[in-house]
Each structure stands twice: as C-alpha cells, then as structure tokens.
Design brief:
Radius of gyration: 20 Å
Structural class: mainly beta
Helix content: 10-25%
Oligomer: single chain
CATH class: Mainly Beta
Number of domains: 1
Largest sheet: 8 strands, antiparallel, barrel
Number of helices: 3
Shape: elongated
Order of helices and strands: HHEHEEEEEEEEE
CATH architecture: Beta Barrel
C-alpha cells in the first residue's frame, strides 16, 4: 500500500502532469466554508469590533480564465455563498442571509497548482428580526481574496480561499465580512 501511495504522490507532483493540467477556460466550482460577519461600531464604542455570530456556508462559483504567457492566468468570476450567521439578544436578531461577489482575478502557476488573488464587488444580505418582524438590507462594498488551487486531474482542482469584504456603513455602523472556503472545481 505504501508503494502505491508513493507512486500516486510522484504522479501528482510530476512536472509533465503540471503541463497537461488545464489552467484556463470556463470553470465551475463548489464551495463549502465558514463565515464571520462583523461590525465596527466607530460611533458607538471607539471602533470596537463585534461578531454577528458565525456560520458554515455553502456556495458555487463560475469563472473564465485566460492563460497569459507561461505562468500567469487572468480572468473573471461570480460567486454566491449562503450562510446564516446571527447573534440574538432579548428577542432581537441580526445576521447574514447570503452573499454575492463578482470581479477579476490574477493567478500565478506554481508547479501543479495556481496561487491567485481576487478583487471585486460584494453584495451582502443583512437580515434582522425584532419580536418576530423581519427585514433585510443589502450592503455593498469592495472585496478581496487570496487562494490556492491544486490540480487533481487534467480538468479538476481542489483548493482553499480566504476573503474579506468592507461593506460600508449602515446607520453609522461599518459592516465587514470574513470568509474562508474549501473549493472543488472543474475546468472545461
């Protein structure tokens, strides 16, 4: 069994496999992650950061990448992650109810994978309820992310990504989103 594990590792790490792996084109990926929305209440408590709970998330991303030269990839993306993080006090709750992001990305091919950075626009759905009455508000702002994708086949990859979005102010309170995700995708 040990012999087969070493053979599998050598095939995955092989430079020939890295050359064969598709690094550009249309891609679809599934995302499973962890979200922590926060508020920075500058006007309330001298910039104290409060978490609005935390939650597991599930989502998907679509993108298109173009290989520029031997080791640079650039493209566009759009993703949706659903999470329901919330914090409650005395019958009042506030938290997240979905997130949409889109923008551009640039990657560097490293061996059998790709290290990438994203920048774009983020729209976060804030959900609040007081004594059974609910309302929601979309908060919009800039987002950025760093991640790595490791090729596990000619057309498939797995990876991880960390992202941050500054969603601007709502009623004097600055909202932010921190998110980490495990990803798995297919390139066509």
């Amino acid at each position: 069994m040990k012999k087969y594990a070493l053979l599998a590792i050598s095939l995955i790490a092989s430079p020939a496999f890295a050359d064969e792996a598709k690094q550009s084109g249309f891609r679809l990926e599934a995302r499973v992650g962890y979200e922590t929305p926060t508020v920075n209440a500058d006007s309330v408590n001298n910039g104290t950061l409060y978490k609005l709970g935390n939650s597991a998330s599930i989502g998907a991303e679509a993108g298109y990448d173009v290989k520029l030269g031997r080791s640079v990839v650039a493209g566009v993306f759009a993703n949706y992650d659903y999470a329901h993080a919330q914090t409650c006090y005395a019958g009042s709750c506030i938290g997240s109810d979905g997130n949409v992001a889109f923008g551009g990305r640039v990657g560097i091919i490293l061996g059998n994978g790709q290290l990438y950075a994203k920048a774009g626009y983020d729209s976060f759905k804030l959900q609040a309820s007081v004594n059974g009455v609910s309302a929601s508000q979309n908060l919009n702002g800039a987002m950025g992310a760093l991640g790595y994708q490791f090729n596990v086949g000619r057309h498939s990859y797995i990876g991880f990504e960390g992202s941050y979005a500054d969603l601007g102010q709502y009623n004097g309170v600055n909202f932010q989103r921190r998110h980490a995700a495990l990803t798995g995708g297919v390139r066509f």
